[in-house]
Amino acid sequence: MEKSVIEQAEETQEDKFYLNCKKKSINGIEFKACIKRPGNFTIINSDKKLVYEHEDNPAEFEFSDFNGDGFSDILLDYFTNVPGIKELLIFNPEKNDFERIVGFTNFPSAIKIKGTDFYYSYHRSGCADNNWDSDLFKIIDNKAIRFGNIKGIGCGIDNENGIYINKVNGQKLEQIKFTPREEGYWDGKWEFIEKYWTKNHNKFE
Q1: Same domain, 154 and 176
Q2: Which range marks the domain in which residue 91 is found?
Q3: Which of 42, 102, 115, 200 is 20 to 30 Å from the Cα of 137, by its Cα?
Q4: In sequence order, what are the residues at sequence separation of 6 or more whose Cβ sits closer than 8 angstroms to the Cβ of residue 131?
Q5: What does the pLDDT average to over 65-73?
Q6: 66 in any annotated domain
């Protein structure tokens, strides 16, 4: 069946103002998320109701079940100097809408620890990635809350080279372990971070 002139005009108008749109069926409802040009990032449901609007347009976005609850969430990617920085919109199956997680951009390249409510992140902290940080966090009441920190120093100036492990309470850091290391880049940090947080996350609650 051919589309009417009105339908064709509507699609042409939409193409003019939308840079990137994706659809996803979640909890029996189809959602359409769009990067608008010009305008805001928006999500509408199959009833054409606006369920979320975001002022800053991302460079890209994806549907992904980030928190592992069986419902697709949305990760928004931005062009920044720090790799892996994203905004997170968690799907609320009771309200059938999306809720922004406050503070999530503080935790780049975040990964969920399987079977837990914990996540950990990674970001460079200078000196050509010889200095770095990994933070342990949870999502509580739509806020990303930090519980622990691993700081790697391989280019020590103000601090001795090594691995610093800290408990976090608000803005307060309590060092619980220090392991000296030689100066320079450490290839084994990725495996160390994953294994340490997976094994020890419960010690930081």
Answers
A1: yes
A2: 1-100
A3: 42
A4: 124, 125, 151, 152, 153, 154, 155
A5: 97
A6: yes
